[in-house]
Each structure stands twice: as C-alpha cells, then as structure tokens.
Amino acid sequence: MLPEEIDRAAVLAALPDGWPVPISAPVAQRLCVPIGIDEAELAPVVLDFADSPHLLVFGDSGCGKTALLRGICRSLMESNTGAQARIIVGDYRRTMLGVVEGDHLGGYAPGASVLSAMTTELAGIFERRLPGADTTQQQLRDRSWWAGPEVFVIVDDYDLVASSGQNPLTPLLDYLPQAKDIGLHLIIARRAGGAGRALYEPVIARLRELSTPGLVMSGSRDEGALVGTARPGPMPPGRGILVRRNGNELVQTAWLQQS
C-alpha cells in the first residue's frame, strides 16, 4: 500500500491542521513533528517529542536515516524560533552540513572532542534545570521553574560516536530519564549492522529502558529485535517499522533532498 517514495511537501499538505504550527502555539504542539505516512490509512505519522522526548533509528546505509533527521530538523525550525528550540548536531561523516543554521544551531560537532565539550556544557545547563527544594507543585505542573529553549541533540552515524573510546554522550546519560522536565531530547541514528551487539551500550540501553520510540529500517534480520519486537529486513529506502507504546506500524518516511 505504501509508495516507494513520498515527498515531504505531500506529507505536510495532508496534515489536518496545516503546517507549520505557529510559533505562538503551546510547546506541546510545536514539538509535534511529521515524519511520513503509515500503511494502515496512508495518513501522516507525527512524532510527539513533548510526550516521548527521544528517538532511536536503526538502518543500513542508504535506507533514509539521514533524510529522516534532516526532515526532523526542518520541522523543528519551521515551528520554533531559535529561542524556543536549539539543535546540537553530531555529524562525524558531514552528512548534515548546513541542515541547521542561524539561531536554531546550538552547535555542530564533526568529531568526538567537539561533541564531548558540547555535552559537558549541556550537562551543566540541565543540572541547573532540575527542580530544587523550593520548586512549588504549581511550577512542577507548568514546568515553569526554568526558562530557555528545548534542546535537541541529533546524532547521525552513532556507531562511530559510540566506538570512539569514551562516548561523548555520556555526560547526558543521567538526565535522559528526566528529559520531559528539563527540555532535553536525544535523537540518534545508527546503522543496523552490529546493532544487536550494541543494544547494551549505555546510552542505547538507557533509551530502551525508557521505552523510547524507535524506527527500524532496512538491514539484516540476523540482528534480531532492535526496538520492541521489530527486526530489520530488506525494505525500500525510507521504509521502516515505527515502534511506539501503542504498537508497531509500517511507515514510509518523507523524502527531503539535501539543499
């Protein structure tokens, strides 16, 4: 039922409330990101980063992982100002060069030393965002005890990052469970080859413990179940199994040409 390819513009045109979401909208609306269409109804699939702050993506080279990350970045920039959402890009292979620019770019890391310095600085910011003893219940309900942008750390080719000795994302590890309260979002894309062995790497293991949504794209079935019960397998570019708390769905992610 799914097309071999669908352009991002076609996905946005099918959204019932239009796109982009106004920057004056509540944060819960501005953090909803369309990524493609589902097989069941050929309707737009939207990730809600306000409800589920992180995302895991597995797939082999050419499966469409980077195009998905580009689309997520574009959507965040269209519905948020730089003061509302800041994006940190970890990009060892330079596949995301120029995708995020201007006020939305919190930092671009082409290597381990730069990414490590950025995440260490971010850890200090998130430590200050944790609720303190004087935080009231109303502030907890409204999440109003801190001010600042939502921070998205988006890492392509995570297999290169995690294999670089000391993982540069380690400083963020303790803050992942409290991400909704402190405005932290981690999105990592990794090749499917060898992913079965990497599931117990600390960052991926913590994300799995948190029931993080995941997209499993083309790869070898021998890797086993990578997110929930979803296994990789031979699939066209852009195709994947999206695993969320309410079940699995086959989706075709939107294609976004690199500008």
Which labels suit this protein?
259 residues; Rossmann fold; 10-stranded mixed β-sheet; globular
Question: Oligomeric form of this entry?
Answer: single chain
Computed CA radius of gyration, to the nearest angstrom? 17 Å
- The helix-and-strand class reads alpha/beta
The SSE string, one letter per element, is HHEEEHEEHHEHHEHHEEE
Number of domains: 1
Q: Report the end-to-end length measured between terminal Cα atoms.
A: 29 Å
Low-pLDDT ranges = none
Mean pLDDT comes to: 95
Question: Could you tell me the strand content as a percent range?
Answer: 15-25%
Strand adjacency order, main sheet: 2-1-10-9-8-3-7-6-4-5
What helical percentage do the residues reach? Answer: 25-40%
Q: Determine the number of helices (DSSP H or I, runs of at least 4 residues).
A: 9
> How would the global form be characterised?
globular
Largest sheet: 10 strands, mixed
CATH architecture name: 3-Layer(aba) Sandwich
CATH class identity: Alpha Beta
Number of strands: 10
Q: What's the CATH H-level homologous superfamily?
A: P-loop containing nucleotide triphosphate hydrolases
CATH topology: Rossmann fold
